[in-house]
Amino acid sequence: MSNKFDNRADKLGEYWDLLNKNRQLVGSKRRGEAFGQNEWHLLANATIFNFDQEVLIQQRSFNKIGRPGEWEAETGGSVLAGEDSILAIKREVKEEIGLDLPFAASDFVASFKKWPTFDDWYVIKADIQIEQIIIQKSELEQAKFVSLNEALPYFPSDHLAYVTQIGNNLFGGEHA
């Protein structure tokens, strides 16, 4: 099934807030314009767990500008001008996989800084099955749920220190 967002991937004309190294707003920039040494922008990404203790992994479209065809354990992308990361992650998840998930500030895990981006990472547990996912074909080739151990190779290396702790918090002990 297709959705109304299928033609939105890699829009070079969209505007992003331009930030300094302290994450303060200093202007705006169109996607596709080069970043200066002291210019940054914000990303929002989410790892989605289902109630079966599985992680959603996605294969990026082969037509994407960055990392075409790669598998990853996150859904998300660039924060548009005027958005904060929580609004952006809700929008990105709706666009890319067709789900309205109730992201809250408590789902925020960490922000990773690697020039030219700040990458706000959220983790959510939701009662969803793969049949509910409607992929945006311009963004993704396919998506599937896998065990946390199977998903580990698809996490960015700077996330790995958090992953086991998150799994335990979501599915074990008092946080289950």
UniProtKB/TrEMBL annotation:
Coiled-coil residue spans: none
Assigned keywords, A-Z: Hydrolase
Tagged with keyword Hydrolase: yes
Pfam families: NUDIX (PF00293)
Alphabetical list of InterPro entries matching this protein: NUDIX_hydrolase-like_dom_sf, NUDIX_hydrolase_CS, NUDIX_hydrolase_dom
Keyword Translocase assigned: no
Entry's Gene Ontology molecular function annotations: hydrolase activity
Domain Nudix hydrolase: 39-169
Name used for this protein in its record: NUDIX domain-containing protein
Organism name: Oenococcus sicerae
